[in-house]
Amino acid sequence: MSNSDFTPRDNFGSRFGIIAAAAGSAVGLGNIWKFPYVAGQNGGGAFLIIYLLFIIAIGLPVMLSEFSIGRRAQRNAIGSFKKLAPGSPWYLVGVMGVVAAFLILSFYSAVAGWTLEYIFKSLTNTFAGKDELELNAMFGSFISGTWRPLFWQMIFMILTAWIVMAGIKKGIEKYTKVLMPLLVVMIVMLCVRSLTLPGSGEGMAFLFKPDFRGLSADAVLGALGQAFFSLSLGMGTLITYGSYIGRNYNLSQTVVQVSAADTIIAIMAGIAIFPAVFAFGIDPAEGPGLVFITLPNIFQQIPGGYFFALVFFILLAVAALTSSISVLEVVVAWFVEELRLTRRKATVLAAVMISVLGVFCTLSFGVMSDVTIFGMVFFDLMDFTASNLLLPLGGLLIVLFVGWYLGADRSRHEISNQGKLRLGYFPVFMFLVKFIAPFAIALVFIYGLGLLRL
Ligand code: TRP
Question: Taking the model in full, what pTM does it have?
Answer without folding.
Answer: 0.94
